[in-house]
Design brief:
disordered N terminus, about 210 residues
């Protein structure tokens, strides 16, 4: 029996599509760290409608929601102080720990993904940004499920498979329209905040893994 060989190739990196989904999910959770009121006010949405792909990110999201629900979590510092030790590495990847030796302030990873936050947008903008990120994550998830259903439909030509495939297509199309409807006015507002013209990058274009 093969017990493994020295020098075996490391596990392959996730495909670009999955990396993009992970980046969106970490951006959303990083936003919750920076603005815990979103976790408190949108707890139902986060618990019922936002399922994240990486267990560590999902666990961090759930813990932030719990901390915010307990009260007294006014800012990112409160989350950092109260999050479980085993989630600190994920908190660093998602939000960004301070590093004085490199001149990095707490929250630097989130600001790299969402530079618009450097301009301290108001609560209304943050609420709309939250809605956009949730819709984009739901769209990515639905597209992934649709790809899987398409493969299944290619092998199994039965009514239940066809119904699921068609339902996912409808969900995908509805989410595409929702993302467009949320993104356009948010981008316009972001350009005004930054004092940039129409050629400026969209709010979500700069999100990177």
């Amino acid at each position: 029996r093969d017990k493994g060989k020295p020098g075996a190739a490391p596990a392959s990196a996730p495909p670009p599509r999955l990396e993009a989904r992970h980046a969106l999910e970490r951006t959303l959770v990083g936003l919750l760290v920076a603005h815990p009121r979103l976790a408190e006010q949108r707890a139902d949405t986060l618990s019922e409608s936002v399922v994240l792909t990486e267990p560590s990110v999902e666990a961090l999201k759930s813990r932030i929601v719990a901390i915010a629900g307990e009260g007294g979590a006014a800012d990112a510092d409160a989350i950092w102080e109260r999050v479980d030790r085993e989630l600190l590495d994920e908190l660093d990847r998602t939000h960004g720990a301070a590093d004085d030796t490199k001149g990095l302030a707490r929250g630097h990873r989130l600001l790299e993904r969402l530079p618009i936050l450097r301009h301290d947008p108001d609560d209304g903008f943050l609420d709309r940004l939250f809605e956009l990120l949730v819709a984009m994550i739901q769209l990515k998830r639905t597209e992934d499920e649709l790809a899987q259903a398409k493969d299944a439909y290619a092998e199994i030509f039965d009514d239940p498979t066809e119904r699921r495939f068609l339902a996912l297509m409808r969900d995908r199309d509805a989410l595409v329209e929702r993302v467009k409807a949320l993104e356009a006015p948010l981008d316009e507002e972001a350009r005004e905040i930054r004092g940039q013209g129409a050629g400026a990058a969209r709010v979500t274009e700069e999100i990177a893994a």
